[in-house]
Write a structure and sequence with these properties.
This protein has about 400 residues and is α/β, with parallel strands linked by helices. About 25% of the residues lie in helices and about 25% in strands. The protein is built from nine helices and 18 strands. The strands form four sheets. Strands 4, 5, 7, 8, 9, 10, 11, 14, 15, 16, 17 and 18 form a twelve-stranded mixed sheet that branches. The longest helix has 20 residues. The protein is globular.
């Protein structure tokens, strides 16, 4: 008897099936690029480098059978994009899920507007070991080599010179079991439009997180949820993000280019549980001025008193019209708010997951192409933050758009 495949389409936590529908990909294939080590900074020890594993002969043969990899769609903004990797250690907080591991650690990809002429190596999509762990968890029967997943071509550059000026900061938090790299397509686009973006990995909550010393931490919560369920995960992520903001805006910040950040213009968006964490973070930390939930059940309810008038965006697939937590959230949002519904989208449609699923050989499950899904996500998330962190009018958020007939806009 064949062991049933653990699909990318479903993750079970606390007895609750979290729908993770996967859409197909339409990105044009490109030759498999060589992998490079990401530039890495720590909060205490300067810069370090994380190496990538050398492919075995078997993996190389599997990669040859796939023959091609893919690239993310080009960012739409006017700026080149730089990327650094920052390792943060919260010495005042034990890891909430694996206390024996010591203090809480975060791996953060920092995307930023770079100077013209930036033409250095493009940043790796993820480490090979992260890709191996992701395939093992989400597609254990796939024959694709992990190098095909880690070799997805990005548009951000390591060691890029930053543009002068101060820019709004947007924190991105990924879906449960998925690494921060699954938000790369959105992160690069926001940076190209004039944002600093911090995409955060929350260790032990995703398939695998590679540390600067080369270790890849596994998922401790994927099979056994924590006490308190997913609400505890959302609130823990809020603590993670507040610590991240402390370190990025400190007098002696953890990131080399932290001077680019305008601390008075901070927003947050997340997918799935990351979206729930956006609401939880705003409830706990007034520094976050605007938040967006991309198709995430709001496990930690918005307080009855609201979010102190700060704007919030609900952006999801049609199925969210049946989500009671979104009804509750909508009723308790006390500032500017919109509820956007995308016809034909699935749960993963707001991330790079459809592209990765296609590379792993998982069939298309939604009518929209990956390119279209990402274009819609980029357009509406950028419009939201442009309006509330840059103060520019965005008619796209105020009603139907002939260019985007898939999107329904609900206003108060």
């Amino acid at each position: 008897m064949t062991r049933p495949r653990r699909s990318w389409a479903t993750a079970t936590t606390a007895g609750l099936a979290l729908t993770l529908s996967i859409a197909g990909a339409s990105a044009a294939p490109a030759p498999l690029p060589s992998t490079a080590a990401p530039a890495t900074a720590t909060a205490t020890a300067g810069e370090a480098t994380t190496g990538t594993a050398t492919a075995t002969a078997a993996a190389a043969a599997a990669a040859t059978s796939v023959a091609t990899s893919a690239e993310l769609p080009r960012p739409t903004g006017p700026y080149a994009v730089g990327r650094d990797t920052v390792h943060l250690v919260d010495t005042g907080r034990p890891d909430p899920w694996v206390p024996s591991a010591g203090p809480r650690r975060l791996m953060v990809s920092m995307y930023y507007p770079a100077r013209r002429g930036t033409d250095g190596p493009t940043a790796p999509y993820m480490t090979t070991e992260e890709a191996r762990f992701l395939l093992r968890l989400r597609a254990p029967d796939a024959t694709v080599a992990p190098e095909v997943i880690s070799g997805v071509r990005t548009w951000s550059h390591t060691d890029a010179r930053p543009r002068p000026g101060r820019f709004p900061l947007v924190v991105l938090s990924p879906g449960f079991t998925f690494p921060r790299s699954t938000l790369t397509g959105l992160a690069e686009d926001l940076a190209s439009r004039g944002y600093v973006v911090a995409a955060v990995d929350h260790p032990y909550e995703n398939a695998g997180t590679t540390l600067p010393d080369g270790r890849t931490l596994p998922c401790a919560l994927c099979d056994e949820p924590p006490a308190g369920g997913m609400a505890a995960v959302a609130r823990s992520r809020a603590v993670d993000v507040s610590f991240l903001l402390d370190r990025l805006t400190a007098r002696h910040p953890a990131w080399l280019h932290a001077r680019m950040i305008d601390p008075k213009r901070i927003g947050m968006a997340g997918h799935s549980i990351g979206g729930a964490a956006s609401a939880a973070t705003m409830a706990a930390d007034p520094r976050v001025r605007a938040g967006a939930d991309m198709d995430g059940t709001v496990f930690a309810p918005v307080p009855d008193t609201g979010l102190d008038g700060r704007p919030f965006l609900l952006f999801g697939a049609r199925a969210r019209t049946l989500d009671e937590t979104w009804d509750h959230t909508w009723a308790h949002l006390d500032g500017w708010k919109r509820w956007l519904t995308v016809d034909g989208a699935g749960h993963g449609s707001f991330t790079d997951v459809p592209l990765l699923a296609d590379l792993a050989g998982i069939p298309d499950a939604t009518p929209l192409s990956f390119a279209r899904e990402l274009a819609l996500t980029r357009a509406y998330v950028a419009a939201f933050f442009d309006r509330h962190l840059k103060g520019t009018a965005q008619p796209l958020l105020d009603g139907p758009s002939a260019a985007n007939p898939e999107v329904t806009v609900r206003r108060p």
